[in-house]
Amino acid sequence: MKIILTHEVSGLGAAGDVVDVKDGYARNYLVPRGFAIRWTKGGEKDVAQIRRARKIHEIATIEQANEIKAQLEGTKVRLAVRSGDAGRLFGSVTPADIATAIKSAGGPEVDKRRVELGSPIKTLGSHQVSVRLHPEVAAKLGVEVVAA
C-alpha cells in the first residue's frame, strides 16, 4: 500500500515521503496513530505542504546536528517524579517529559518526537536515552530519575 508519511518514522522515512508498506502495517499502525495518510492523487498536494513544514522544524546540516549533539551530551538531565517505596514510578517517564527536562536544564530545545526510549522508564535511577537529531546523527543522553 502506498502511503504519505506525516511524521518521521524510524527505519521508514521522514515526513512528506511517499513509501510502500505492507497493507496491515499501514492500516493497523501508521494510519490510526496519525503517522501516515493514504496516498491519493489529491494527496500529492499535501506532500509539498508537509515538506515545507518539515523544513521549518528539521536540523539542516550534519554540522549543526553535531553541535547540538555536543550540547546535549554535556547536559545533565534530572527528572523529579512521584514514586512508590520500592522505587517504581506512578506511571512512566515520557519523551515529552524528557524534552521538557532538557530545556529546563539549559540544553537546546528538542522535539519530543526525536526522543527515542528503548523501553519505558518506570523506575528510579539512571537511564540512557537516544535523541535522533538527523538521519545520520543521534545523541546519547543520560537521564537521572529521582523521587519528588
Overview of the molecule:
Keywords: Ribonucleoprotein, Ribosomal protein, RNA-binding, rRNA-binding. Residues 13-40 form the Ribosomal protein L9 domain. This is Large ribosomal subunit protein bL9. One of its GO terms (molecular function) is structural constituent of ribosome. Belongs to the bacterial ribosomal protein bL9 family. With 148 residues, the chain is α+β, with helices and mostly antiparallel strands. The chain is built from four helices and nine strands; from the N terminus they run E-E-H-E-H-H-E-E-H-E-E-E-E. The protein has helices at residues 23-30, 43-57, 62-73, 95-104, and strands at 2-5, 18-20, 36-38, 77-81, 88-93, 115-116, 121-123, 125-134, 137-147. A four-stranded mixed beta sheet has the order 4-9-8-6. A three-stranded antiparallel beta sheet has the order 2-1-3, with helices on one face. Strands 5-7 form a two-stranded antiparallel sheet. Strand 8 (125-134) and strand 9 (137-147) form a beta hairpin. The radius of gyration is 18 Å and the shape is globular.
Q: Please give the alpha-carbon distance between the first and last residues.
A: 47 Å
**SSE order in H/E notation?**
EEHEHHEEHEEEE
The strand count comes to: 9
Radius of gyration, in angstroms, nearest whole number = 18 Å
Main sheet: strand order: 4-9-8-6
Key terms:
148 residues; alpha+beta; 4-stranded mixed sheet; 3-stranded antiparallel sheet; 4 helices; 9 strands; 30% helix; globular
